[in-house]
Amino acid sequence: MSQHPLASSLQAWKELEQLYASKGKQINLTKAFKDDPKRFETYSRSFNSSKTDASFLTDFSKNLIDDEIYKKLLSLAKEAKVEQQRDDMFAGKPINSSEGRSVLHIALRDLPQDFNPPVEGVDEVKGELEHMKQFSEQVRNGQWKGYTGKQIDTIVNIGIGGSDLGPVMVCEALKPYAKRDLTAHFVSNIDGTHMAEALRASNPETTLFIVASKTFTTQETITNATTARDWFLKSAGDKAHVAKHFVALSTNVKAATEFGIDKANMFKFWDWVGGRYSLWSAIGLSICLVIGYNNFEQLLLGAHEMDLHYKNTPLDKNIPVLLALFGIWYTDFHGCQAHMLLPYDQYMCRFADYFQQGDMESNGKTITKDGERVNYETGPIIAGQAGTNGQHAFYQEIHQGTRLIPCDFLAPAQSHNPLGPHHDILISNFLAQPEALAFGKSEEEVKKELSAQDQQNSFLVKSKIFEGNRPTNSIMFPKLTPAVLGALIAMYEHKIATQGFIWGINSFDQMGVELGKVLAKKILPLLQGGDVSKVDGAGHDSSTSGLTKYYLTHRQK
Ligand SMILES: O=P(O)(O)OC[C@H]1O[C@H](O)[C@H](O)[C@@H](O)[C@@H]1O
């Protein structure tokens, strides 16, 4: 028997198809809630941690499920051997099979050493954390001085993808814990504008550049870092000063050394840390600098508590597993294309961007680990925005569009900025949107609100109807603390892993980003050569050649 069969060949999958056809698509949430006054109790789950302040409530009751469907989804997880695959991950087995690597971001936050996978490098985690602690404390307390003896007041994190999105998202989310007199810039894009704007706002005497790159070969990051170093040396002159102003976060010590970074200023991690799972590693140095090491540690511990929950909780109470199963119910049986992440917390404004990479780069795959092409959908399109902004932008489609778009709503019970009526108003929206999506507004209700004349206008009446039955998960936590954030991130990481386990794909490589990079490297000499007459013979299609010629004739001379 194959190790990673197509999910569609599983018995539970086939039965779910039948359940979808016989009743799944007709589940009516209004009726379901009326029939079962305890539906909220039945389908909500709590996450509590004894060692941190991380806790939250997840309400799954507004999903298009009944008891039979729910149980069948759990059987799917069993039959797909989710528990075995999860345990293999925690044990350090090389589950990233295309690259022959373990997947051990869980080891980065295993401070109490509950898992201790026997993999090379795991025993170095504590030492690296200690290095990050010492360094970040020195910078924050002013002991670390720039080349003219001044304290550091600005950091520029240079990285892209996983070496950017995690640190940006967390620094934004935990701003209430930030050292406010330390300015942090995050430069990722190869577009010179990104670096130029950061440099414009920085002083070479007081700026620390953090070059964050797992491979230390990424074109954007190396180009940006080189530009930053040139800019710095223009003022500092002597190359010896680079050591005070540049540090590297990487698994590639050799390349970082060649770039000119002092060994003492290197923070390393290991090839078993995926880029999009790396904020817990040395890649989190900018987070330590901004919020302080102790808060960073709380972030790790909150995530670790979620790791324990995922590892040790039976499937029917296992929050990441349930999120994964409901997601599969929509993606593969209801035919949904997208999934929205909607945090009602301004500090979480980059959360959806972060998990856009986390989810789409992990599960945007068509080939199973056995090398077969899937005959079902895998990872959904992830998008979202901090509430209530999204309500005034794209919620129209979620409420009345032709597509079914499942959404996760997240919100804190307490605000870091309790300002007059703001938080109650915010939360009233957080509560109202899932209610509106689930229960809608019937023709009868619409008509009641209209004048006798307007009631005759069938276009108007129909336009105001909300069909309802649009599924949501709601997640509430007391306050957005470092540990709560850590647990929420880990929860989604494990949701993504679980879905990948069921779909039989490798969620931990990203071969799909390579081809474009290779072609860009082929095109670049054509642009740098600048000879329009050479374009046609360069072996590109007529579209690429036509666009290249347009660029060469219109670019800055
Ligand atoms: O950290 P780096 O090696 O510079 O990689 C940065 C990013 O680029 C790659 O193309 C991958 O798609 C991402 O997963 C990765 O996070």
From TrEMBL:
Taxonomic superkingdom: Eukaryota
Entry keyword set: Gluconeogenesis, Glycolysis, Isomerase
A Pfam family cross-referenced in the UniProt record is: PGI
Does this entry carry the keyword Nucleotide-binding? no
UniProt key word Plastid: no
Q: What is its EC number?
A: 5.3.1.9
Q: Which GO terms describe its molecular function?
A: carbohydrate derivative binding; glucose-6-phosphate isomerase activity; monosaccharide binding
One GO location term (cellular component)? cytosol
Enzyme class, one word?
isomerase
Q: Which PROSITE patterns does the protein's record reference?
A: P_GLUCOSE_ISOMERASE_1 (PS00765), P_GLUCOSE_ISOMERASE_2 (PS00174), P_GLUCOSE_ISOMERASE_3 (PS51463)
Q: In which pathway does it act?
A: Carbohydrate degradation; glycolysis; D-glyceraldehyde 3-phosphate and glycerone phosphate from D-glucose: step 2/4
Q: Which family does it belong to?
A: Belongs to the GPI family.
Biological role: In the cytoplasm, catalyzes the conversion of glucose-6-phosphate to fructose-6-phosphate, the second step in glycolysis, and the reverse reaction during gluconeogenesis.
UniProt protein name: Glucose-6-phosphate isomerase
